[in-house]
Automatic annotation (TrEMBL):
Organism: Granulicella aggregans
Full protein name: Peptidoglycan/LPS O-acetylase OafA/YrhL
Pfam families attached to this UniProt entry: Acyl_transf_3
GO cellular component labels: membrane
Alphabetized InterPro entries for the sequence: Acyl_transf_3_dom, Acyltransferase_3
Keywords from the named record: Membrane, Transmembrane, Transmembrane helix
GO MF term (any one): acyltransferase activity, transferring groups other than amino-acyl groups
Signal peptide (residue range): none
Domain of life: Bacteria
Length: 386
């Protein structure tokens, strides 16, 4: 029996549910400052947050919500490897690109349109109406083409969607790097993993000390190593010689991940912020995915309950909708009161679920029915393969 989830749904549900908590962490990171007036969150990744500015574990934890994006990147490589590489055959690029387009682009474009008027109004207030009329159309074209992680001066409409610009690079590279990484075995696989992690973090550190970067202006290639580590994790788990983790092994991995995560949070004021945002926590995420990708633990079974799985399936919508919904909500009422903030969160979650069932899934099916009648990705697999 293989260690990783196979075609049975119960083996993939915990990872689906985990996506909800990761996306919700991003939502809290982006919006809680509106409620607490920035008490918890550093205004910018370029702004150091010394220990005295983040005096307790809670404030430090909330200040690193952006690390969820690295988790998404790693999980994306992991799930795509499971779906496409287990047969160890070349990937049908046409089918693959159609499936990825159908998964991410419809809601990406819809939320881009939703946030467009608010971005225009904000820019007009900050500069001038003339400047906004010139710049926003260019921004819209650049973001529509998913080039805004490269052309950072022409971004800012629904800013969290920068990660999809990075994902587009991963999708383009996957048919070429996926199978070679999957076929690595033994020392070669471990060597590749170490080189990817250490080399990737060294590159991030060197790049960030040489250029002015921010968490919302990443270079996609700096995240590619995290995506590749997800592929290697899937390859290691699906090695035919490997057995399912025993319950004590899964629990040990969860405890280890928790301990290292607490240590990372406590020391976060001294860790280079760009490395935090660009994959330095990948080993923790790999432990979590390995431990939760089977039903060996009570936590895995808890995360497999249907309502959490539904929230996980809607996590992509939660991630993309929370800023447009925030702008719409605050045009009516500020979220600076606890009740208003709670209402905003509840509304965003509800809309993300409705979006999954009535926007994302129907549009995905329509695109696939038009261009690819026999996709390899199931709806559930696609829901966590952002």
């Amino acid at each position: 029996m293989s260690a990783a989830p196979n075609s049975s749904a119960d083996k993939i549900h915990p990872l689906t549910s985990l996506r909800f908590f990761a996306a919700f962490f991003v939502v809290i990171y982006h919006t809680l400052g509106n409620l607490v007036r920035g008490r918890f969150l550093p205004a910018n990744i370029n702004t150091p947050h010394p220990a005295d500015a983040l005096p307790n574990f809670g404030s430090r934890f909330l200040s690193i919500g952006f690390v969820s994006v690295s988790f998404f990147f790693l999980l994306s490589g992991y799930i795509l490897a499971i779906v496409y590489l287990r047969r160890e055959k070349p990937i049908d690029r046409r089918k693959f690109f159609i499936a990825r387009f159908a998964r991410v682009y419809p809601l990406f474009f819809i939320t881009l349109l939703m946030d467009l008027p608010f971005s225009f109004r904000m820019l007009a207030r900050l500069s001038s109406m003339h400047h906004a009329m010139l710049k926003i159309p260019i921004n819209f074209v650049v973001e529509t083409l998913m080039l805004h992680a490269w052309l950072v001066k022409f971004s800012g409409i629904n800013f969290p969607n920068w990660s999809l610009s990075a994902e587009a690079v991963f999708y383009l590279s996957f048919p070429f790097i996926g199978l070679p990484l999957w076929r690595l075995r033994g020392k070669a696989r471990w060597t590749a993993a170490v080189l990817l992690f250490v080399g990737g973090q060294a590159l991030v550190f060197a790049w960030s000390t040489s250029f002015d970067l921010s968490p919302l202006q990443p270079i996609p290639l700096l995240h590619l190593s995290t995506f590749a580590l997800g592929i290697l994790l899937a390859s290691w788990q699906f090695d035919a010689r490997r057995q399912s983790p025993k319950p004590w092994q899964a629990y040990a991995a969860l405890v280890a991940a928790a301990i290292v995560m607490v240590a990372a949070v406590e020391t976060s004021p001294w860790i280079p912020l760009h490395n935090l945002g660009d994959g330095i926590l990948a080993p923790i995420f790999m432990l979590l995915i390995w431990a939760l990708s089977s039903s060996a633990t009570g936590l895995s079974r808890m995360l497999s309950v249907r309502w959490l799985v539904v929230l996980g399936e809607a996590s992509f919508g939660l991630y993309l909708l929370h800023i447009p919904v925030l702008h719409i909500f605050e045009s009516v009422h500020s979220i600076a009161q606890p009740w208003a903030y709670a209402l905003y969160l509840a509304l965003t979650i509800i809309l993300s679920v409705l979006s999954f069932y009535f926007v994302e899934a129907p549009l995905r099916r329509w695109i696939l029915a038009s261009f690819d009648r026999h996709p390899r990705e199931s709806l559930e697999a696609a829901s966590i393969a952002q």
